[in-house]
Amino acid sequence: KPNVPVLDSYWMPFTANRQFKKAPRLFASAQGMHYTDVDGRTVLDGTAGLWCVNAGHGRRQIAEAVERQLTTLDYAPSFQMGHTIAFDFAERLAAIAPGPEGAKLDRIFFTGSGSESVDTALKIAVAYQRAIGQGTRTRLIGRERGYHGVGFGGISVGGLVNNRRVFPQLPGTDHLRHTFDPVRNGFVKGQPEHGAELADDLERLVALHGAETIAACIVEPVAGSTGVLPPPKGYLERLRSICDRHGILLIFDEVITGFGRLGAPFATDFFGVVPDIVTTAKGLTNGALPMGAVFASRKVHDALMQGPEGAIELFHGYTYSGHPAACAAGIATLDIYESEGLLGRAKQIQAEWDAAIHSLKGLPHITDIRTIGLIAGIELDSREGAPGTRAYDVFVDCFAKGLLIRVTGDIIALSPPLIVERGQIGEIVEILGAAIEAAA
Ligand code: PMP
Fold this sequence. Notes:
The protein has helices at residues 19-22, 48-51, 60-72, 84-96, 114-131, 152-157, 161-166, 182-185, 195-199, 201-209, 235-246, 267-271, 298-306, 324-339, 345-348, 350-358, 389-400, 422-438, and strands spanning 27-31, 34-37, 42-45, 107-111, 139-143, 173-176, 214-219, 249-253, 277-280, 292-296, 366-372, 375-380, 403-404, 406-408, 411-414. By secondary structure, it is an alpha/beta fold. It folds into two domains: 7-55 and 344-438, Aspartate Aminotransferase, domain 1; 66-339, Type I PLP-dependent aspartate aminotransferase-like (Major domain) (Aspartate Aminotransferase, domain 2, 3-Layer(aba) Sandwich), CATH 3.40.640.10. The strands form three sheets. Strands 4-10-9-8-7-5-6 form a seven-stranded mixed sheet, with helices on both faces. A hairpin with a 4-residue loop joins strand 2 and strand 3 (42-45). The radius of gyration is 22 Å and the shape is globular. It starts with 18 loop residues before the first helix and ends with a helix. The protein binds 4'-deoxy-4'-aminopyridoxal-5'-phosphate (PMP).
């Protein structure tokens, strides 16, 4: 009996990704750094699932905490009522919240995913502006090659042009025009000082639309899903100062960079640039249960909750906001991060990671290699007339050789669990290098 179900017998159980239909790869179990597929083959996880399983797979501590919670209080409404575990988790998160001591973004709103966190953050920004008497500020600025999930808010501020072409965009959204050109502006190529110049594109949008119409600007500190684009030096700092000058809130989407991916708890801490709102999900629960959290400054929170036209008028919250089992998973995840020092581990192995990944330099087809924290982006040249197919072949070959990578167009992304051992970094590079060499 084949292990792979007949594909025609169901319709789109996962994503709308057609590549899955071409060659399904089905996982059956996972432990530590490895998946096992339905044929019993072991696959090294080079992507922490989908940038989320930061502490590795199958953590018993998380499973036990979830079971305990489900048999104690499985679900309770968060409207009019509450439950203690959500407050316990919020308190734990507040202690490590992004931002410097004394000015942490320690006001926390729970959601069910990264996309929900983004929608929530955008709504908080607009509602905040209204609460401080700036009701004309409803415009939301994203940026080209930004990725903020698949809600209408997220795709509207996002930079995936195909999505924006198919779906109507939220009115009053616009985008910083610069697409990072990694080869010209990239982080690893000598960190040229293009950052400030690029961020000045926000001034163009302010001049075009008027500052009095703009509520917030949202960016990923390091763009992940669109191809691993670390910010050029000075970029985030300049965005912060332009936002300050014009009363615009700055939102960092840390769904990927949050919880230790860069070797600091948050990218906010890593870069030392403090936004007004931070979105998170993924590593919040180690991917064990779906959950997100939005961190806001006290300034934003207090105005929103107490302003004359504040949140009291608004209706926002999800059935699963602060879901008890997800909170239990989150607390257990934080326990692991803290006891194993995982939020700083990427920094400790940064030198080895960089050296290993950059040792791929010189292989055919590679046009750029970027690393930051425990993330790598390896860009290949496109096959003529068939962009993305070469990287996809590398993906298939790696999988056959026992390594899970991620590809976006012709860019290969790596982001292993933060527990990755040095020997496993070597394994990742060996398998990937062989697959790139074999790709015609
Ligand atoms: N924002 C960013 C930066 C992301 O990387 C993602 C997911 N890759 C999202 C938002 C959306 O998160 P989710 O898929 O949990 O909705």
